[in-house]
Amino acid sequence: MLPRCLLPVLLLWTMAAVASAEPGQFTLDQLLERAWEHNTDVAVARLDVEGARSRVKEARAAHLLPRLRLESFGGLVPDAEGDIFNPPGDTSGVRPLGPFVRAELQFIQPLYTFGQLSNLYDAASAGVDVERADLEARRQDVALEVKELYYGVLLAQDLSDLAARLRGELEQWEPQVSPDNADIPLGAPYKLRLALIELANREREISDGLALARAALAWKVGLDESAAYSLGDQWLAPVNADVPAVDALLETAIGHRPDWQKLGAGIAARSAQERAARSAFYPQVFLAGGLRYAAAPGRTDQHNPFVKDEYNLLNGAVVLGLRQSFEFGMLNADLDRARSLRLQLEARRQSALQGIRLEIESAHGEVHRTEQEREGALEARNLVREWVQIARDEFELDPSQVKELVSAFEALAGSEEAYYRAIFDFNMAVARLERIVGVTLRDAGDTP
Fold first, then answer.
1. What is the predicted pLDDT for the residue at 199?
2. Domain-wise residue ranges, the chain
3. Is 442 helix (H, G, I), strand (E, B) or coil?
4. What crossing angle do the helices spanning 28-38 and 40-61 adopt, rounded to 10°?
5. Rounded CA gap, 124 and 30, in Å?
6. pLDDT, tens digit, for every residue of 352-378?
7. Right CATH for 24-61+113-282+328-437 from 2.10.10.20, 3.40.50.300, 1.20.1600.10, 2.60.120.10
8. How far apart are CA 12 and CA 262, in angstroms?
9. What pLDDT sits at residue 362?
């Protein structure tokens, strides 16, 4: 058992440990999950799916007792004792009032509608698929936005670290570059100072951009903008992506692309609506019936079948009905409208496949182009690094080579930034191709 005197100490130590704990780290996949859960546009699309499901429930309910109502009311009515042979003796019409209650149950059950109800149900079910495709499209749009912000934050972090590192290294050489040193060219101190000022300005600019990117990412995924958080990746690295050929990507897109799935579901819905409009030309067979009951204690219940009292009765019936519409002009207009909407979607589908292929070819080419640019930027960075090392060695041997050193560091800053931006462009090219195809191309386990 822990001594009671140590409990306050332990409590304070625990609170301090919690306060000093590292902020939450989020990988890209975790941020995507948060965005899909908290993003407003995704939530609205999810509610649209629920609305479509309610229409399916409505269409299903039309098959079984679409009309089943019970109406009941009560009030006061003048008493009336007697019958047609023994009427009330009071003929003044002013009689005591008594209570009454009345209830009526009505029902209609379709028996055969020539497929109209089933077609309306199929149309509502296809409408759910349309809304689901819209939801998936919105999820993928949000995923692309989150990826851009995620890679942008990593890019800004790397550029900020680069500027600080280069500025710190140049500042180490500043005391050695003095106008009083005869071995130093007259313009060298100015060139070095201008380079430091440029790096400081660039560092502040990147810092402001980093703060804005972090706030935008937090807002997009549902985090508090003022909350401290960190990313799972420490630096920006190229994603490991398996990018197949265009034909394979096209086949994948046909099975996973949300807008293509929406188009197919829309055609199915319009086709079902067209069949339902055609079914309206045929009669509808149904059962109808009900039960009526009324009671008034102050009035004599009449048992003569030729005498009707609306305040004392009990009757019911079940009948076989047939409904046929002869408004053929209106029915033809509804059918033509449904057929026109279906044909519009089918025409759009014929050209959509070619458009999808063009988008895939363009995005596929962008991935390969940015990959080549990244490789070229990497080669340039390595060359500049070798130049910087040579310039350092020359400066240590001959301080008059300070201009060469500053120029090398300026080239290093440019090549490093170009390399990081080439990685960002490559990652975004892969992300855009993923959005166009509708699937993830990153290798399993690849964090970026």
1. 79
2. 24-61+113-282+328-437, 68-82+96-111+284-323
3. strand
4. 50
5. 34
6. 999 999 999 999 999 999 999 999 999
7. 1.20.1600.10
8. 57
9. 96
